[in-house]
Each structure stands twice: as structure tokens, then as C-alpha cells.
What we know:
By secondary structure, the protein is α/β, with parallel strands linked by helices. The chain has helices spanning about 15-25, 35-40, 60-70, 75-85, 100-110, 155-170, 190-205; strands spanning about 1-5, 30-35, 85-95, 135-140, 175, 180. It is built from seven helices and six strands; from the N terminus they run βαβαααβαβαββα. Strands 1, 2, 3, 4, 5 and 6 form a six-stranded parallel beta sheet that branches.
Amino acid sequence: MTTFLVYAHPQNCSFNHALKEITLSTVSKLQVSDLYEMQFKAVADWNDFKETKGLSTNYSQAQKQAFFGNLLTDDIRSEQEKLLVCKRLILQFPLWFFSAPAIIKGWMDRVFANGFAYDTGKWFETGLLQGRKAFISVTTQSSESAYSSNGIHGNITDYLKPLHHTLRLVGFTVEDPFVAYAIDKSSEEERRAYLDAYRKRIVSFTKSM
């Protein structure tokens, strides 16, 4: 069963890149979409369709018509094909201004198309991508205590909830996130500990299901 890593960080010297390398060295059946390297288009718009004649003026409905009419652009269809053959999905990115980078949100907006990932009455337990599981791997600048319930930012899961909810809506079983806190301020020992913990998490994630 294939694991699909959707990775979003613009620098190869980053800790996110080190986490990506852990996944590459640990998982045998792996597909990777490096969104920045791919220059993946983040904006959902009418350029997502090979042609617009006859499509609804509502973007969501146009997505559905384009999906069934084979009119979605090749970059979207390629990502959808990766999703269809995977059983496990990892979204990996740094937390920027308390949310995911725009390129991650754009990937979800464009790839989780109406008709492909969900449809009327086909969401959550009946979502069209059911039978798969996912988790988010994220790094932060602030400390773990800052993201505690009583911390200055509040619980980290509050910031990830929109992404988790979207994954659940299209049918994924969502596991708890992996969070590497205050990574810019971490010592080499702390970074190694995070990498070791992540390797164990990846092994556990890919063994189950």
C-alpha cells in the first residue's frame, strides 16, 4: 500500500527537509509531491479547466462538471491519481502565521475537487476518499508551552482544525499531528530527538492499516 507525502517548504536546508528525508529513507512504497519544487499553482480559478464552455459559473459545480468531463488540468489530475492509489497521506509544512502555507491550502482546494473527493451526501464516513488515513507533520517557531491550552497562542490543534476537518470531510481517518516545536531555537540534541521520534512515527503509521 502506497504512502503519499505532500511536502511544502521552499528551502532544502530546512528542518522540514530533514523530516522529508526521514520519510524517503523509511518508507518503501512512497509517492512525493514537493509543491514548491513543482511550482504547484496555489490559486483555485478558471484556469483549472482545460475549457470553460458549458461549465457552471459556480466554481465548485464547475469542478464537478470538469472532473466527470475530463476537463481538469493535468496538474490536478496527476495529484488525484496519486491519491487514488495511496492508503496513507502525510501533509508536511511549517506553520506560517498560525496556518498552513498557501500552497498547501491551494493543493487541497484544487485537488479535493467536487465529484472526486466528495459529492452531495458523500462526505465524512461516506466521503469519496474513505478507507485512507492521514496525519499532518508541522514545525513551529514558538515553544510547546506557547501552544498549550493556557499558552499565548492556545492549543496547536485549533490551528490545524480546518485542515483536519477537510481531510475528514473527504473521507480520511485523521491521526494526531506530529509537531516539532520551536525548531529554529532547538539544540542539535533536540533536533535529533525530533528526527528519531518522527522516524518511529512514520514506521508506526505505515505498518498499520
